[in-house]
Structures are given as structure tokens and as C-alpha cells.
Amino acid sequence: MTMTLDNHDETVKDGIVLIDFWAEWCGPCKRFGPVFEKVSAANEDAVFAKVDTEDQQELAAKYGVTSIPTLVIYRDGIPVFGQPGALPESALTDVLGQVRELDMEQTRAQYEEQLKEAGRA
């Protein structure tokens, strides 16, 4: 799916959502795209969203994306992973497995604590 500023909040609020920040002119993005698509096809329980950083500059800025591709993963509305660079298929599958195994009660408590410390809660 294509993610935009308009559908972002609704998309990330539930379940597992992987976001690929990319651009048409980016060589590493073009190599990562098929990996992202292949893992997407094998994991229909997760949402795989793509953000064209040229078209969605405000959304890319919201994430502080300065290098592409950048991968961000949410689970139940909480960002749990973020990393620039293209991942090989095995690494992307492994990260997705780790996200599935997270203790979300503990993760939510840690996230809320981080928000408090940052003065955003």
C-alpha cells in the first residue's frame, strides 16, 4: 500500500505495520523494493506500506528520514524498530519475527515512559 500523511495515523494504529521510505532515483531502494514485496507476500498478517519521500516530504520529515531506504516498524500503534539501509530478505524476516514476539505490555510501558521523559505524554 502507499502511505501518505493523510492515511498514516489510521494505518499504524493496529497490528504490525512495516514502512519503507524510498525514492525512485535511489539505487539501494530499487534493490530493497523486491525484498520488501517478497516478504510482504509471505506475511499477509502484517501491513507493508511504502512512502515515496519525494511525494511525501512532510511525512519523511516527521520521521527525520535523512537516508533512504529507511525501514520503520510499528506494532499496535507503537514504533518498535527503525533503521536506514536495505536489509536482506533473511534479516527483514528475522526482524519481523522479533516484532511478533514482543511483550506488548512491557513495550507499551517503556514507550509511555519515554514519552513522559520527552515531555510528550
Question: Mind telling me the C-alpha Rg?
Answer: 14 Å
| Shape type | globular
Q: Which class best fits the helix and strand makeup?
A: alpha+beta
| Percent strand | 15-25%
| SS elements, strand count | 4
Major sheet: order of its strands?
2-1-3-4
**Spatial separation of the terminal alpha carbons:** 30 Å
The residue fraction in helices comes out at: 40-55%
Classified by CATH, the class is: Alpha Beta
In CATH, what is the homologous superfamily? Glutaredoxin
CATH third-level topology: Glutaredoxin
Q: How many discrete structural domains?
A: 1
Count the DSSP helices: 5
Description:
One of its GO terms (molecular function) is protein-disulfide reductase activity. Keywords: Disulfide bond, Electron transport, Redox-active center, Transport. There is one protein chain. With about 120 residues, the chain is of the alpha+beta class. The chain has a single domain (about 10-115), classed as Glutaredoxin (3-Layer(aba) Sandwich). The chain is built from five helices and four strands; from the N terminus they run αβαβαββαα. The protein has helices at about 10, 25-40, 55-60, 90-100, 105-115; strands at about 15-20, 45-50, 70-75, 80-85. The protein has a four-stranded mixed β-sheet.
